[in-house]
Amino acid sequence: xxVHLVGGGGDLVRDAEVFKTFLSEVSxxxxxxxxxEPVVAIxxxxxxxxxxxxxxxxxxxxxxxxxxxxxxxxxxxxxxVSAVDGILIGGGxxxxxxxxxLPIAGEIRRQVSTGVPYLGFSAGAMIAAERALIGGWRIGGxxxxxxxxxEGLDEITFAQGIGLLDVTVDVHAAQSGSLSRLIAATxxxxxxxxxxxxxxxxxxxxxxxxxxxxxxxxWRVSQADGGVLVSTIGA
Length: 235
Description:
Layout: E1 3-6, H1 12-33, E2 39-45, H2 50-59, E3 64-70, E4 86-89, H3 94-101, H4 105-113, E5 118-121, H5 123-126, E6 131-135, E7 138-139, E8 142-143, E9 157-160, E10 168-171, H6 173-176, H7 179-187, E11 193-197, E12 201-205, E13 211-214, E14 217-224, E15 227-234
Helix pairs in contact: 1-2
């Protein structure tokens, strides 16, 4: 099964394309488990239940959802991701998501290794990496990206993530200007490179080649002689 990383957006019309491969894998996993109706865990961190409801709507009526809506400072329980056919982690304040999910990261990795697909939406995509970018807008006090994507952090900050993939991820790439954060962090040697995902776009990481679906692109940033190389993986 695969890891699905969505760059944010939440357009219900476009979500049909973005979520379809995840839903296909969820249905297959349910059939393997002998369940007639697939069960997807949805975990959100932040105020209110609206985001969890939006994500559930994107999955459609053929899927049963088990929702854990956590407040900032809460931690997710192991039972939140047990006996499910898919795991969906929502968007919001990335450091809060990481703090909530890191205690059960080992169980999430175990579930994915047994075939349960993971979908990270915005913050959920960023924390999926082994070395997660969790915010910040400056390097050495110099602005490298708009402050509104800083997640409340000043210097660009990395932390141990869930560990589902070995490349750093940023989101809302074309829409928020966060792509410059990946470029600057790579040029400064803070990371070897990374992937920036546009809104309404999903990067599917599984066996074989990377897959991209949706309205935008995935931007690949890597170190190169004399600078940084930027290319796109189109949908």
